[in-house]
């Protein structure tokens, strides 16, 4: 049974709506206003393109802070690890294991490389990655994904989401 566009009107984002932006475990409540930039997680975002989309849609942050709906991809990760070490005790964190510099990474971002591609470059240029255990490799990948993640999910504010948002900021204040 096909759903009529009028049926899901209340589930679509409209100008003037209050929404909650979510990235990982971080939430921020904002109001949709045309041509208004919002700072979220140290990044400027323009919310104009979310109007008309369904709540719960995940957007990629494109250049200039514009949001574009993210296409669903079943093949989640090209960062699947095939070689893993058995022990981490010989790995020394001397800051020299990563061959890429911050400028190299910024250049890759400016060239428009996707986050997965940047993470794969970080893995390829790490001299200690293959020596780490599978758990340590997964932890490293998760940390890098969080750092270079470039997506935001737009949620409809509910009591539970608002409570989670405030609890994440200052749990002591909402007792």
UniProtKB/TrEMBL annotation:
It is found in: Nucleus. GO terms for biological process: tRNA methylation. Residues 66-94 are annotated as: Disordered. Keywords: Nucleus, tRNA processing. GO terms for cellular component: nucleus; tRNA (m1A) methyltransferase complex. Belongs to the TRM6/GCD10 family. This is tRNA (adenine(58)-N(1))-methyltransferase non-catalytic subunit TRM6. It comes from Gambusia affinis.
């Amino acid at each position: 049974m096909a759903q009529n566009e009028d049926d899901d009107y209340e589930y679509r984002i409209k100008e003037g709506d209050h929404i909650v932006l979510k990235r990982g475990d971080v939430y921020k409540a904002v109001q949709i206003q045309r041509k208004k930039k919002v700072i979220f997680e140290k990044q400027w975002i323009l919310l104009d393109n979310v109007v008309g989309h369904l709540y719960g849609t995940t957007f990629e942050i494109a250049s200039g802070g514009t949001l574009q709906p993210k296409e669903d991809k079943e093949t989640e990760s090209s960062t699947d690890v095939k070689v893993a070490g058995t022990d981490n005790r010989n790995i020394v964190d001397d800051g020299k294991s990563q061959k890429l510099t911050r400028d190299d990474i910024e250049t890759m971002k400016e060239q428009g490389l996707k986050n997965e591609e940047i993470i794969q470059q970080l893995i390829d240029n790490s001299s200690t990655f293959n020596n780490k255990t599978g758990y340590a490799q997964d932890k490293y990948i998760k940390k890098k994904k969080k750092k270079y993640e470039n997506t935001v999910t737009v949620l409809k504010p509910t009591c539970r989401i608002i409570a989670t948002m405030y609890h994440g900021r200052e749990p002591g204040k909402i007792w």
